[in-house]
Each structure stands twice: as structure tokens, then as C-alpha cells.
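In this supplementary section we document a worked example of the pipeline. Step one takes a protein sequence of length 138 as its only input; no multiple sequence alignment statistics are reported here. Step two produces a three-dimensional model, which step three serialises into C-alpha cells for compact storage. The input and output of this example are shown verbatim.
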Amino acid sequence: MARLQPMSQRDTKTLERLCDQLADPCESDEPNSRKFDRCPGAYMALHVERIGERMFSLAHYYQQNGDAMRDPEVVFFRDEAGRWYPVTLQQDGIRVPYTVAAKCDENGIVHYWPRRYRELRAFVLIWLRNLRAQQGVA
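The serialised model returned by step three reads:
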């Protein structure tokens, strides 16, 4: 299997800043999530959550009929070397709402789909650039 391309150094820095000091929910009762909302009403707030030892969720939400809808949610895997990989994308209210680009277990990424991964990584590159501008994160 070809080697997966992790996120760039700049994007790694952004992801580290967003996820800094979030506790592993399986190991601690300390906070495992936070919200970034630099310009309320101008941009959608960013919700960041640590969902496992090496898994993190970044998401925007909107309300529809009283339900929180993902717009989108991207789950990232961070390996032991500190490299970040987007693994899933979920966006509610669209025709193809869920994309799995890579499968992980406790040892890391065990399988990935090259086309899906390239497409998801390309989306994330643009999304993180926008988040840096909108939410003022490095």
C-alpha cells in the first residue's frame, strides 16, 4: 500500500493549536472539547473535540428543526509521530453525507481508499486555511 500523505507542517501547527490540552475522554474527566467563535454571527463557530486517544473531531453545526446538523464534521487521526490524517467526513443534509477515507484501529491506519483520501485531504487544506483566517488560529 502506498504511503499516506499527512497534513502539511502549517496545517499540523493549526491542528495542534486547536486540539491543545484536550483530555482523552477514556482516560480523564478533564475537558475534551472547546469552541472557537471569534466573530459570532459572521462565521460558523468551530467545535473541536477529542473523541479518543488519537482521534479528534472538528465541526461546524447549524440548527434544523431543533437538531444540530454537521456542516461539516471531519475526524482526524494523529499518529505517534504527531502526523495528522483526515479519516472521515460527515455532512448532514446532503446526498452523500458520509465518507470514510481511512480505517483506523488502536495501532493506526489499517486501510485507506486513495481517491477518497486525496479528495478529503484537498478539502481539509482549504477548510483549515479558511479557519485560520476566520477564527484567528495559527
